[in-house]
UniProtKB/TrEMBL annotation:
PROSITE patterns assigned: ABC_TRANSPORTER_1, ABC_TRANSPORTER_2
Entry protein name: ABC transporter ATP-binding protein
MF term (GO), any: ATP binding
A Pfam family per the record: ABC_tran
Key words, A-Z: ATP-binding, Nucleotide-binding, Transport
CDD domains on file: ABC_NrtD_SsuB_transporters
Lineage: Bacteria, Pseudomonadati, Pseudomonadota, Alphaproteobacteria, Rhodospirillales
Species name: Azospirillum cavernae
Residue span, ABC transporter domain: 5-238
Amino acid sequence: MSTLLDVSAVTLRYKTPSSLVTATERVSFSVNSSDRFVLLGPSGCGKSTLLKAVGGYHKPSEGSIRIKGREVTEPGADRMMVFQEFDQLLPWKTVLENVMFPLCVARNMSKAEARERARAYLDKVRLTKFIDSYTHTLSGGMKQRVAIARGMAMEPDILLMDEPFAALDALTRRQMQDELLQLWEGTRFTVMFVTHSIAEAIKIGNRILLLSPHPGRVKAEVSDVDQVSATDGSAAQLERQIHDLLFAEPGHRE
Ligand SMILES: Nc1ncnc2c1ncn2[C@@H]1O[C@H](COP(=O)(O)OP(=O)(O)OP(=O)(O)O)[C@@H](O)[C@H]1O
């Protein structure tokens, strides 16, 4: 197993006109190739900020972020992001064109190459029938599938997913979680996934990093999720253990 991403003692801050907000403090972890690495913690603990920093959109105040040994200093096609919002697609382009666009622009592919690659990934997310549709005609789940296909088609080193299913209804959310795992079984891509749902973390992740409430610090890492949750009844037990670890601080209320 090789280390792909190394986050070392990273502190992330926001400067506002009136104050300095510390989002995360001295957070360290590493992600290996083919990990389904989940960042889990309560609202405001800095999960999204950490993901943005890995994406190259937020510079650490202290510490370093390295991918394949190179320091992350800006966004790059080696790290693709999928967001929660349904409006991350270009409404004036069709489904196929949305997936082709970054392939042409950031990967310098010819239109024919990009079309072929985009079709293959849209097929993986079961959207072949909808390639010529405009995105406003799609359901929330279908839009997220397009965003996932667009990210995966770039074949990045790591796919960064920021609560991608949080705005979906419960049934669609479960379907999308299953589909993501099936996609992973097929290609074993590396994914970093942000959620504040313990159940979702256990379902998606093989490793889960638990962050404390604001400012986010590492509380613990659960690194054998697949083995533990495969045993009968133990997913529920793991959920309780993670809950206790996350909310152990005296006086902290959910
Ligand atoms: N643009 C910003 N300017 C100032 N402070 C910010 C900004 N964005 C986030 N913060 C603050 O940084 C901290 C971490 O925010 P972040 O969105 O990363 O947390 P999170 O764990 O992803 O939360 P949630 O689960 O609610 O999305 C919070 O205290 C938040 O108020």
